[in-house]
Amino acid sequence: MVNNFSGKMLPLSRDADTEVFWDVTDFPIRTDRSYLETLRSVLVSNGYTGELKIRAYGEKKPDNLGDGVTFLLKTEKFSRLNRMLVDIGLWELDTTRLSACTPKNVMVIAENIDEDTDFVYVSRNLRSPANNCLWVLADDYEKEKIKRVKLPSASFIWIWKDLLAGKKPMSSEKLSSLRCKAPFERAWAEI
Fold first, then answer.
1. Cα–Cα distances in angstroms (integers) from residue 144 to residues 11, 45, 175, 182, in the given order
2. Given a cut of 90, is residue 168 above it in pLDDT?
């Protein structure tokens, strides 16, 4: 088993490859470092050592994506989320078909995924014994979005500014607290 769902990763998943689905319009990086370098340094500082692959979606291709990042031009938010959803589903099929027991990490960096959308449903299904699901929330999630955007079912969740600062993901206590603040989330709480 890769993740015991207690908020502690087993060493095997830290060595696994990480596939990132990133809406670079919603979560831009405004530094001289590339998107690839920035995320790689954050993941390495949190113990992830496997290969990193990034699929970026946005209104405009950033100049500092980095070599090897796949970029898909999608100008409308709904179009970006829809394409990301399809790509995540295809990634899941491909990686599960190759080996259901091979640990893998998937990271989703996107926002404004409201209520009961297909995107939320699929993201809930990403978390499995062979998947370590990482999620990034907008900085204003707790103050402005918690009542309308469900907290994703993930192994680990970061707030955007904390991820960029190289901090650890939210503690299980913080996640439990956030789940209790969203009334419609109580039935889904995974404590």
1. 35, 29, 16, 12
2. no
Structure tokens at 146: 């918690």
Q: Which of the pair, 127 or 78, is modelled with greater confidence?
A: 78
Q: Which is more confident, 71 or 6? A: 71
pTM of the entire structure?
A: 0.80
With beta carbons less than 8 A apart as the criterion, state whether 3 and 13 touch: yes
DSSP-assigned beta bridge partners for residue 177: none
Please give the sequence-ordered ranges of beta strands (E in DSSP) within 6-92, or none if there are none: 18-23, 52-58, 70-73
What H or E segment, with its residue span, contains residue 107?
A: strand 104-109
* Dihedral over alpha carbons 13, 14, 19, 21 (to 10 degrees): 110
> Which of the 8 DSSP states describes residue 150?
P
Q: How far apart are CA 171 and CA 162, in angstroms?
A: 12
Domain residue ranges in the chain: 22-179
What is the token pair recorded at 100?
A: 């259901």
SS3 percent helix, strand, coil of the chain, rounded to 5, is 40, 20, 45
Check pLDDT > 80 for residue 60. Answer: yes
Binning pLDDT at 50, 70 and 90, where does residue 4 land?
A: very low
* Whole-number Å distance between alpha carbons of 94 and 127: 16
Which tokens in the block code for residue 69?
A: 């990042």
Residues in the chain: 191
Q: Amino acid identity of 40?
A: R
- Quote the DSSP letter at residue 73: E
